[in-house]
Amino acid sequence: MTDTWLIVGLGNPGPEYSHNRHNVGQMVLDELASRAGGGFKSHKARAQVLEGRLGIGGPRIVLAKPLSYMNVSGGPVSALAQFYGIDPAHVIAVHDEIDIPFDTVKLKLGGGEGGHNGLRDISKALATKDYLRVRVGVGRPPGRMDTADFVLRDFSAPEKKDLPFLIDTAADAVEVLVKDGLAAAQQKFHPAKAP
């Protein structure tokens, strides 16, 4: 297996979804692509990809935005992992997370999918839950709003002001995760627990 990293931004294809909370993973990938100084190209695995390195002489990375809908992200992710010879331990899924507050980024390896159908499909396609996740907090739906309706809406006006900082932080978290490992990234990006 290769030491290349596959970094996948989850979301739905098409301009009508591009600013939804559900697409924050793809927004993070756009930030990583701009840092890498490249553009996405179509790949036969039904994804847009950008191959590059993380910094000068850094690890080889493949940034990928599946062109499938969120709930069927597994096919493109699995096909890309096979195409590039990347082990699931080197797959990073960047996704929206309602179980953590807006403006918070958390990282983990494996575990449950928390009702996230995109992650569930990836776990099924990779035949393991042991891949890395960068969880980008989008907050909980207000009142009794349906979760699906909430994540398929754009961020609120106050959130939009802070969104660039959240995207920047999540992109930084991906870079630290690849360069320094999970423990170092968690130590840096997880908020300290109050004593």
UniProtKB/TrEMBL annotation:
<keyword id="KW-0694">RNA-binding</keyword>
<dbReference type="GO" id="GO:0016787">
    <property type="term" value="F:hydrolase activity"/>
</dbReference>
<feature type="binding site">
    <location>
        <position position="17"/>
    </location>
    <ligand>
        <name>tRNA</name>
    </ligand>
</feature>
<feature type="site" description="Discriminates between blocked and unblocked aminoacyl-tRNA">
    <location>
        <position position="12"/>
    </location>
</feature>
<comment type="similarity">
    <text>Belongs to the PTH family.</text>
</comment>
<dbReference type="InterPro" id="IPR018171">
    <property type="entry name" value="Pept_tRNA_hydro_CS"/>
</dbReference>
<protein>
    <recommendedName>
        <fullName>Peptidyl-tRNA hydrolase</fullName>
        <ecNumber>3.1.1.29</ecNumber>
    </recommendedName>
</protein>
<comment type="function">
    <text>Catalyzes the release of premature peptidyl moieties from peptidyl-tRNA molecules trapped in stalled 50S ribosomal subunits, and thus maintains levels of free tRNAs and 50S ribosomes.</text>
</comment>
<keyword id="KW-0963">Cytoplasm</keyword>
<dbReference type="InterPro" id="IPR036416">
    <property type="entry name" value="Pept_tRNA_hydro_sf"/>
</dbReference>
<dbReference type="InterPro" id="IPR001328">
    <property type="entry name" value="Pept_tRNA_hydro"/>
</dbReference>
<comment type="subunit">
    <text>Monomer.</text>
</comment>
<feature type="binding site">
    <location>
        <position position="117"/>
    </location>
    <ligand>
        <name>tRNA</name>
    </ligand>
</feature>
<keyword id="KW-0820">tRNA-binding</keyword>
<feature type="binding site">
    <location>
        <position position="69"/>
    </location>
    <ligand>
        <name>tRNA</name>
    </ligand>
</feature>
<feature type="active site" description="Proton acceptor">
    <location>
        <position position="22"/>
    </location>
</feature>
<dbReference type="Pfam" id="PF01195">
    <property type="entry name" value="Pept_tRNA_hydro"/>
</dbReference>
<feature type="site" description="Stabilizes the basic form of H active site to accept a proton">
    <location>
        <position position="96"/>
    </location>
</feature>
<keyword id="KW-0378">Hydrolase</keyword>
<feature type="binding site">
    <location>
        <position position="71"/>
    </location>
    <ligand>
        <name>tRNA</name>
    </ligand>
</feature>
<comment type="function">
    <text>Hydrolyzes ribosome-free peptidyl-tRNAs (with 1 or more amino acids incorporated), which drop off the ribosome during protein synthesis, or as a result of ribosome stalling.</text>
</comment>
